[in-house]
Structures
1.
Amino acid sequence: MKDEAGGNQRRARFQALCQSLRPDLLRFAFWLSRDRALAEDVVQESMLRAWKAQDTLLDESAAKPWLLTIIRREYARTFERKRFPTVSVDELIAQEEPMLAAVEEPDLADVRAAIMKLPDDYREPLVLQVLMGYSTAEIARELDLSGPAVLTRLHRARRQLRVACGEDTTLDPQE
Amino acid sequence: MMDHEQYRAAVLADPHSTDAELRAHRESCTVCREFTERLLKFESRLERALRVDMLPKAAVLPFERKPRNAVRAPRRWMAIAASVLLGVAVAGGIWLTLPQQSLAADVVAHMAGEPQAWQGTEAVPDSELDNVLKDSKLRLKPDAGVVSYASSCSFRGHRVPHLVVQTPSGPVTVMVLVHESVRKPMQFDDEGYRGTIVPVPGHGSIAVLMRDLKVSGGEIERIAARVDDSIVWTR
């Protein structure tokens, strides 16, 4: 009886934690996959894995990076399990148009399209830094890269985005 | 000594870096300062662009296995079931948010009782800020923005930090409510304030308010996310 109550309490607590982080987890999975339906599947599977492995989460304040790591692994597993048809980036952008359109802020649609076109190697560290607030060292640890490699990717990602969005890049450093 | 190329390469990689050498270069070079200002404007656009609207299409519990790609090929019966579920979730949501609404009302009432909080724009001394934050076991990152008001206030039986932070969108009042948990972000307009209360897993919630009703709900949410990101919990 006592065990059951404890289990319910634990479940409710874990569920509340996941629900509060869910929008950010979905955003991360979306920018990783560039496909909303796939992102929802990946997050759903990741939460099941997280539930089963919750004893490994020792500090609740570290839940977000812990879940993001699970999502990255789950996303990689998705490709091991299933071969997805090759789709051009323009098709992906058209498919996700309702999400990429920003009715309240029309100046965001072109930035979103440019982010969709970034190579995975540039997009992922950028999302971790800008959206998830990771430091360079944290990104390096998560992606198993050196600090300078992370900085180079972030620098190139911003440069490509700014060029794509018509920003003045005449003062940008040459590589 | 850092040159212009090195400076620009570094800020392109991390526009919010607080590195002392970068700051020193920026202060001594007008062109690089203007470059940084343009970059930060773009960075704000980038941040907003990444924050796509990801409200779940239906309330799905994390432990209930959803068939893969169900969203891709919804069947009619699933759509009906989802709409029923959504209806239940919305009805339940309204009932469950009632206590949160009273929390919002209490937050607004507290703000209205301290109008002097909005008056200053100069940073409060670090020692004063540290005193206010230490009991809540937190500190702010150096790039959190200028904190122009800091007070340890009594709120619902607890001492809570009440801050005013100067942001590019204007002054923002922040209350760190470690004793108040909310289930999900809740936006509200009341008494000329627009605000949101967002959950902080393991640390209660944060209330963020502005006195500008022209600011969109999305902008308030983004400001709240930035405030949340700028907090370092020390326990």
2.
Amino acid sequence: MKMVRVIVIFLAMFFVNAVSAGVDDTVWKNELKTQFFADRSISETENIIAIEAPYRAEDAALVPIRITSKINQTNDKYIKKITLIVDKNPTPFAAEFNFTPLSGKADVAMRLRINSYSYVRAIAEMNDGQLIMAKKFVKASGGCSAPIGADLDAAMKRLGRMKFKLSGTAQSNEPNLAQLLISHPNITGMQMDQVTRFIRPAYYVEEVKVTFDGQPVLTAKTDIAISADPNFRFYFVPQSSGDLRAEVSDTDGNTFSQTYRVEP
Amino acid sequence: MKCIWIVSLGLCLGLFAVQCQAKTKETLEVQKIAPGLYFHFGHHELPNRDNHGAIANIGFVVGKECVAVLDSGGNPQQGLLLKNTIEKITDVPICYVINSHVHPDHIFGNRSFKGRGVQFIGHKNLARAMQARGGFYLQRSEEQLGVKLAPKDIVLPDIEVTDSLTLDLGHRLLTVTAHGSAHTDNDLSVLDKNSQTLWLSDLLFVEHLPVIDGSLKGWLRELKALSALKVRRVVPGHGPVMGDWPAALKPQEDYLTMLLKEVRSMIRQGKFIEQAIAEVGQMATGRWALFDAFHKKNITLVFAELEWED
């Protein structure tokens, strides 16, 4: 009988541990939510946005994340902003994406550094101020202090290079998917130089502005959780031919730009 | 009565064993693959708290005046055992420790070789790579290897190799070659002319899935040049010593070429990294040890490299 009680206690402890290790929301509940959204209420309804992420990250320094919206961007109802947070990262704030009705769809995909087993959460803010959250748990470790990149010489050589890629021929008056590639080492500032004991200063892309014919499509504030060579996929709606333009600035005050002619 | 005898005998043997251990230093199991060339086989495992990161092939070459260590091991203890093994086999002093590249399973025995007359040799990019990654390796050492490593375990090279370097061990010449970005951006290979043995370390994987942490295109380029060398045998960083060169390269070359072709074709079709990770090269599973541990990471790195090629 005593044995049974011991087993029951043991099992109970095991489950408590398993739960706290698996679905750890405490950092969010106790700190992050208040820090980023004060006392505003956030719903977790599933009809506005969804987030896709691998359950196990193959490379913690480069984890593909995709946020998809379930509504079209219209002047009456649209997603104004999506904030991306990685609970357990040393800097939980990963990025903030601002959209307009001209974005067509408030979808955005990027690659993240994820430092440990953590929730990745996307909080959408509607044009009327409503907040809706989607989240995914990712098993990763060491993304933020992980090696900067495999081939550092090659990465530094192409620093500042940018490319736009469109999927197929552009279609007018409907959302078109575009990809922006930015070559930048995005050094996290956490890779301690073990010999000199200095922490390298962070050096990363902090702002990305994409416009179509001068009208904002996507404006992002980004932080060190964005992987080296930042890569964003997003939508835009061209009414007719025009220029897709990206302006990027980093923490050292460098700016880079790239223009791509769109002929629907 | 009989029983007492057996117990006493047991006790004696036990005491003898203890004494024995105190006298003889613990060593590492090594094979002599040619006169004066020794090799310790690393098993195909991920580094963990049981093997403490001692998973790579390591070894040494003995000349008339000097011994050169070919990778020091995955932790200070393995380094110490390798040192004991060398001292048991020869009285020739250790002059050089060659670090083939920055990965922990090849460099973390370094500390045990530090001392007078010992010079550490690495690629010109090795110090930079040790500085960039060292903190990360040390931070995770306890959790991942069950060994607490400290800053003194990062031993920077005394001699940096830019192109190539000849070491004279005394009637034995070693050619140390620095390669362009391949397995990592700091790979060395070592040619022992006496035995016609090419020590490739992780430039060659046999049985164990090749791991890309430098440049896929660069690696294929370096392998092409290496495959032209006429040697009697090659030693991979993981897997058995191979006699038939360059035929021994075939499986690795096929795998890397497949990655190049398939990932490049997906990028040209406008497909994304998620699709490549899910789809590319799953057919190669079963042909390699540790496929699931490294294949998708390889695709990720290859995709990130190739999307900048045009």
